[in-house]
Amino acid sequence: MAKTTTLYVCQNCGHRAPKWLGKCPECSSWNTLAEETFAAPSKRKEGRPAKAGDVQKITDVESLHVDRVSTGVGEFDRTLGGGLVAGSLVLVGGDPGIGKSTLMLQSMGRLACQGKRVLYVSGEESPAQIKLRAERLAALSGNLLLSSEICIEDVLDQVDRTDPDVLVLDSIQTFYTNELTSAPGSIGQVREVAFKVFQHIKARALPAMIIGHITKDGAIAGPKSLEHIVDTVIYFEGDRSHAFRILRAVKNRFGATPEIGVFEMVSGGLVPVENPSRIFLAERPEDAPGSVIVSSLEGTRPLLVEVQALVSPSSSVGMPRRMATGLDPHRMTLLVAIMEKRLDLHLQGDDIFVNIAGGIKIAEPAIDLGVAAAIAGSFKNQTIDYGTVMIGEVGLTGEVRSVSQLEPRLREAERLGFTRCLVPHTAGAGKRPVESSMDLHFVKNLSEAFEIIF
């Protein structure tokens, strides 16, 4: 019988310690070490070593032909890179109540209606609860099989008996393996369960999706190695106060990243939004200082969103407030410092608030020029032309730097009826200058851009 060892494992980073500690020495988190029991590895019998795998020339390796299975939800397929790949393991993470189970049940219901056998295993809800939601989502089908088993060995036995075309586990934190004595949801259980599922579906060429909750820091609960095991990692983003949800791929071995899909939450489930730019701009106010349209690129999709800024005198002496929603607040603070230094705008005594309308989050620096223009417009109390779009990254010296994939951004702005666009000067000085029917202004720095728009 294998000897067991007791270790204390950090539930945040996976660090192992021989005794309990109040503070994890690896990630400095407090009260995160939990007791877990591990079986000591058996010693390899002496003798001839195991045969190593064959070595091949890369030119002799047979090419992989990827056959995809459509989920029946266009935006979901787009995020996955075109659909589910045979033998792929997809991890879907998000806040509790954001709509992960709704999306899974809705898409799997459509797959079942197409004739595919789907095994939906839930460790959180009973079959009666799942059917109640399926009736609301119009996802009832005889090909949709339900199970409430949480022991992963029994789940894999069910997979062998039912032979499904797609497997769904909701959620990974509720399952456990008999090989470990720790509680479900612990670091060891999550990692071991995911690895067992990974091995099983690869052998059967079975596409599988697992749902995972995220921590307060925004990471999927469990060790970081969980994201390395799976083929695709998708985050469900959105604010509960908004109707829109963003499905963002942060890792995809079979498609482009970071691709996104946009959904609207309604009473009947999640409705795909085919033209998110038009939706995000639908409520844009006219003649409002501090409102600017920027063009962002999410994966292969250009997206036009509204940046709103509010600059007002601070009521607290020496401690002005700086708040940003939908973008990196440190990036906003950096742009404010650049404008103060390079343009002599006295913003140090004002409260500054910046918001990306619609509840979407944007991380790329191509929106820098628009954010700076929105702040300056609110500070000067001057409006910017309603048909103007801004694209460009801002450097520390105030220069406007080039961005990638400029032409798709311009085509999207032109399609939505915008007539003028400010772009980096390098876009018109290369061997193949960018062309557009819009009135393009090639700017070198913030000073030139502000002379044009104000």
Which terms would index this structure?
454 residues; alpha/beta; Rossmann fold; Ribosomal Protein S5, domain 2; 3 domains; nine-stranded mixed β-sheet; seven-stranded mixed β-sheet; 23 strands; globular
Report on this model:
The chain is globular. It folds into 3 domains: 36 residues; 207 residues, Rossmann fold, CATH 3.40.50.300; 175 residues, Ribosomal Protein S5, domain 2 (2-Layer Sandwich). The chain has 454 residues and is an alpha/beta fold. The strands form 5 sheets. A 9-stranded mixed sheet has the order 8-7-9-10-6-11-12-13-14, with helices on both faces. It has a 7-stranded mixed sheet with strand order 17-18-16-15-19-22-23. Strands 2-1-3 form a 3-stranded antiparallel sheet, with no helix packed on it. It has 11 helices and 23 strands. It is 26% helix and 27% strand.
Explain briefly what this protein structure is.
The chain is an alpha/beta fold. 26% of the residues lie in helices and 27% in strands.
